[in-house]
Design goal:
2 copies of one chain form a homodimer. The first copy, chain A, starts with a helix and ends with a strand. The first copy, chain A, is 48% helix and 17% strand. Chain A folds into 3 domains: 48 residues, 434 Repressor (Amino-terminal Domain) (Orthogonal Bundle), CATH 1.10.260.40; 127 residues, Rossmann fold (3-Layer(aba) Sandwich); 132 residues, 3-Layer(aba) Sandwich (Rossmann fold), CATH 3.40.50.2300. Chain A is elongated. The model of chain A has no long low-confidence stretch (mean pLDDT 94). With 331 residues, chain A is of the alpha/beta class. A 6-stranded parallel sheet of chain A has the order 2-1-3-4-5-11, with helices on both faces. At the A-B interface, helix 4, helix 5, strand 2, helix 6 and helix 11 of A face helix 4, helix 5, strand 2, helix 6 and helix 11 of B. The structure holds a DNA duplex (30 and 30 nucleotides).
Chain lengths: 331, 331
Amino acid sequence: MSIKRIQQITGFSYSTISRVLNGKAQEFRISDKTRQAIFKAAESLNYRPNILARSLRLKRTYTIGLIVPDIKNPFFGELASRIEKLLREQGYSTILCNTNEIPENEEFYLKVLVDRQVDGIIIAPIHTKEWDAMEHIRRERSIVLIDRIFYETDIPWVTSANEQAADEVTSELIAIGYPRIAYLGGTAETYINTMRFSGYRKALERHSLSVDERIVFFEGYSPEAGEEMMATLLEREPDTRAVFCVNNLVFIGAMKVVQKHEIETGRSIMMAAFDIDRYCEIFKRPLLCARQDQEKLAANAVALLIEGIRNTVGPDRHLIVPVCVGRHRIR
Amino acid sequence: MSIKRIQQITGFSYSTISRVLNGKAQEFRISDKTRQAIFKAAESLNYRPNILARSLRLKRTYTIGLIVPDIKNPFFGELASRIEKLLREQGYSTILCNTNEIPENEEFYLKVLVDRQVDGIIIAPIHTKEWDAMEHIRRERSIVLIDRIFYETDIPWVTSANEQAADEVTSELIAIGYPRIAYLGGTAETYINTMRFSGYRKALERHSLSVDERIVFFEGYSPEAGEEMMATLLEREPDTRAVFCVNNLVFIGAMKVVQKHEIETGRSIMMAAFDIDRYCEIFKRPLLCARQDQEKLAANAVALLIEGIRNTVGPDRHLIVPVCVGRHRIR
DNA sequence: TAGCACAGAACAAATGATTGTGCCAAACGT
DNA sequence: ACGTTTGGCACAATCATTTGTTCTGTGCTA
């Protein structure tokens, strides 16, 4: 009832007020006197437009949905932080949807976001289960896949050079004297795991080594999964010397077991993982780390999303961001 | 135009359709035949109510705003994850607002959330700067402070027993032989830092020790702040034996410096901090940790918020959740 | 002086729901 | 037979905007 109040005070009609308040005074040749009066009234009433009514009329909510599998994971925390910031700068609010790696939640959230008429969706999907739903959504609104993608889809996406980075990490491990490398992976059939494992395998094969399934695990992306995989690994193969963890959380879980094992046996294990740069310098041990470029991931995802919203999609709707592979040792 | 389609198909009026679809058929004595017909039409059209229109009319958006200072921090990541889950279970969507510890962002977000007519706000405020704004918001909608609070306000809040936990940690450090404990704190004038430092001081005083300002720092809550404080500390007081970090991020930053220092000097430093339980077991060193009960924090915040929304506020609008203090050593 | 251009602003439809009130017939009671 | 209840539903207002169309005066020209 707020524009109505201005109407009552100034006596001008809704349309005139609306136009003035939206900066269209010039365009609709509204006199300066009128403009001033309306601005004054709006100011004195502390007028704030009703976003719901506006969105209803305009069919644009300036809201976007961000679906991530695990916001507790600092990787997604930082990604969310960057995306939310970029979107805010463009005038959008972000609805946070945390699926917890549960497909049903993903399905649910996609429906909720459509119901809420978000202008766009950025999603790091769990796997391909909701592909159809997303293709369907894509017809009516902007949607961008991030991090975890469907390689074959036409939906815009941005991800890291996972395969190549995993290959590099593995090659480096081999080069520094670890031909037998255990792989602690995420859930099978999931994009990230598939690509990183593929890189791992390719590196081995290039060095005429083959994948030993006894030291390969696909249990999940959580610390608990990491702990379990590492425990099983060391039980079966106590003389393991090198381990490649699919992500930071698996690494954390694995490290619990590793530390204990190293103390008990006196033998040290070489660890490598994705996105553990935050932890690298707090360990008194060498580590091998593949560091995703979150800034580029976020920036490109948001750019693609906005392009989709504005219907100005460029030719490059699929982006692969380079990953930085590095070795670390204190000092 | 969706309910209109159902109208066209079934011939029933808007009111009847709306009532049936909202499960008020009984209440308004609508015949079973009518009900079935409307349901069938809705189903076949794949009808989804327009949430904007509904919210506009009902003045309820089923949306809540969550304002946190740093979603990259796994502590807030987990808190957000829990809160978002609980709210989802109650039918609410969560708008994520990450202030990045910047007061201007907090001010901005509070306005945005009010403009968006959220039903409620859960906020871990930066400090008391926006207190007035929140008191103002409180008149019209539900708002709950979490983690960082204003002790004196009537606004509902839930936080941890920070002072007591810091006291316990400090006492324990003294008890195990560290009378001289450095304090690496967050931003001065901020609730968390004030309470934890107060606990630290009280413990010292109880043991007839006094605060030595040369080993007390209030630089911030980030890893960078932790690194800087620790570096300065060790430069000035190289024989420091025990350090209490105000939070997990400061701990991470400090550890970088500590590890290097320990290698160089051969002397070990006893570390204590809040919310480092995730890291405890991945270090081959004893640690002292105060672990906040995120489950209770989140559950109580959401409960208070819902009470506020439903106007069923109970007597206990201010809750202090116990903190678990524990010592850790591998094995 | 009729006709026209144009500045300036009002009118009213449309967005998609919810809800208080009103209407009509059938059933019911006495 | 007449008044009252009740079942079953429609009408129309309302929520706060935006926007295409229309209206009303000027001042100017032919």
